[in-house]
Design brief:
- The protein has 293 residues and is mainly α.
- The chain folds into three domains: 86 residues, Arc Repressor Mutant, subunit A (Orthogonal Bundle); 88 residues, no CATH class; 32 residues, no CATH class.
- About 8% of the residues have low confidence.
């Protein structure tokens, strides 16, 4: 009779899902499918290379909030222990990289309020393959795919321009911003921009104009103090200045009252006394119901 081994496993244990080497250290995901109360967060935010950990966490929290929730600095500082200064810095990071956008609106009673828009996928994160990235794999962990033979182009590939601030939807502002950019070459011939560079930079200039900055002031902020040596990427330098030097929104001020109408002088047809009115006729005292009627 064969010898029995009661302590031996009845079957071979399967390897840990998602990991070929269970005896080696590293991350292993134990995932469960969410069916309620969940938020989809893109890897472009969760694994952002330039955002601080506080900004990534705050951006994730903001995207999980319902419409109409308050996300001002005071409210967030009361919710989290980081404090006003660190939360304000994290909000500026998110705004710089396009995850937050602020608009100033005039409501029917004349007051100006600030509306904050959360963007779960800003334009800078909308790459051609962003929808096809694996859920738990970073692009830099994967070897680059060789380009097809017909698509290989000699020479270095042009780097993408840095992101610029974005204004609220206002075609007139974009037209004025394009005029500002087209005029820069008249002041510095190195700032001759292509159509593509102008279209990329125009929203950033429009964001300045939206904050009550004059076109001449925008031009001075872009060209003053430029280095004397040749500019290899002038559009990238302008994009940096539009973002780094962006001024704050103008302070709130009450709406300016409409000027009062001053009517011309006329002589009364009855008493010949001068009075102001839109048209000739009788003065108030000589009008029907007046003291001298």
């Amino acid at each position: 009779m064969d010898t029995q081994h009661p302590s031996a496993p009845s079957r071979v244990r399967p390897p840990i899902a998602g990991h070929d080497h269970p005896n080696r250290g590293g991350l292993i995901h134990d995932n469960s499918r969410h069916t309620a109360r969940f938020t989809v967060i893109g890897n472009h935010l969760a694994q952002h290379a330039d955002l601080s950990l506080l900004a990534i966490g705050l951006g994730t929290h903001i995207q999980s909030l319902p419409r109409g929730a308050r996300i001002d600095i005071k409210t967030l500082a009361g919710r989290f222990p980081e404090g006003v200064t660190r939360i304000a810095a994290a909000l500026r990071e998110l705004e710089k990289h396009g995850y937050l956008r602020r608009e100033r609106l005039r409501i029917p009673d004349g007051r100006i309020v600030t509306r904050t828009i959360s963007c779960n996928r800003p334009p800078a994160a909308r790459g051609p393959r962003s929808d096809h990235e694996p859920a738990n794999e970073r692009p830099r962990d994967r070897p680059p795919r060789p380009a097809p033979a017909g698509d290989r182009t000699p020479g270095p590939r042009r780097k993408a321009l840095p992101a610029v601030p974005t204004p609220s939807s206002a075609p007139a502002l974009l037209r004025a911003a394009t005029d500002v950019l087209a005029d820069l070459r008249r002041h510095d011939t190195r700032l001759l921009l292509s159509n593509a560079d102008t279209a990329h930079l125009a929203p950033g200039v429009a964001a300045w104009l939206e904050r009550d900055v004059s076109p001449s002031a925008v031009r001075r902020a872009l060209i003053d103090g430029l280095p004397m040596e040749p500019l290899h990427r002038p559009a990238a330098l302008l994009a940096h200045r539009l973002t780094a030097f962006l001024p704050p929104p103008p302070p709130f001020g009450p709406p300016t009252p409409a000027p009062s109408v001053r009517h011309p002088l006329h002589n009364c047809d009855n008493c010949d006394r001068a009075f102001r009115a839109p048209a000739p006729g009788r003065c108030r005292d000589c009008s029907p119901g007046g003291r001298l009627a």
